[in-house]
């Protein structure tokens, strides 16, 4: 992956292989009206990452209709599984069954992995995927460009 933002933009990007993109949307639809969550693996880059692997997690939040939480032990196990495949941790995903693709205040307060992507699947109407990188230095999310890769032949 490139060490600089994609050409034509100053934003970082996250690229999804089609199967991975479909997997997070399918998980979000299947889990509605509760939020779903999981871990993303693939190739991590400082400004452009590629998602190849999706690992579902159990939503351990007390109120899963409006929050998500991944049990720390489960998160470590999922990340170790991704790394055993020779992939990098790209980030995390969750759904907003009713709401925008922007991180909520709670999402911002709970972010813990600087530089990693936080992908949100909104189900309000047609599914829409938004992505954000958390900047741990100043505690804010920066929008990422989401790209769906063409099918490999």
TrEMBL record:
InterPro entries linked to this entry: JAB_dom_prok, JAMM/MPN+_dom, Metalloprotease_DSAMP, MPN, VirAsm_ModProt
GO terms under biological process: proteolysis
Domain MPN as annotated: residue spans: 14-138
Gene Ontology molecular-function annotations: metalloexopeptidase activity; zinc ion binding
Record keywords: Hydrolase, Metal-binding, Metalloprotease, Protease, Zinc
Transferase found in the keyword field: no
The protein's Enzyme Commission number: 3.4.24.-
Enzyme class per UniProt: hydrolase
Name of protein: Desampylase
Lineage summary: Archaea, Methanobacteriati, Methanobacteriota, Stenosarchaea group, Halobacteria
């Amino acid at each position: 992956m490139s060490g600089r933002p994609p050409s034509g933009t100053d934003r970082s990007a996250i690229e999804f292989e089609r199967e991975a993109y479909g997997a997070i949307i399918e998980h979000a639809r299947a889990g509605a009206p509760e939020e779903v969550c999981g871990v993303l693996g693939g190739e991590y880059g400082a400004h452009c990452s590629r998602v190849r692997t999706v690992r579902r997690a159990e939503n351990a939040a007390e109120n899963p209709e409006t929050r998500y939480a991944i049990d720390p032990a489960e998160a470590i196990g999922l990340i170790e599984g991704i790394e055993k495949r020779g992939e990098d941790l790209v980030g995390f995903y969750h759904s907003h069954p009713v709401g925008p693709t922007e991180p909520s205040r709670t999402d911002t307060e709970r972010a813990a992995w600087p530089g990693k992507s936080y992908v949100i699947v909104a189900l309000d109407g047609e599914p829409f995927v938004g992505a954000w990188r958390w900047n741990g230095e100043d505690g804010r999310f920066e929008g990422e460009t989401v790209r769906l890769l063409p099918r490999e032949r």
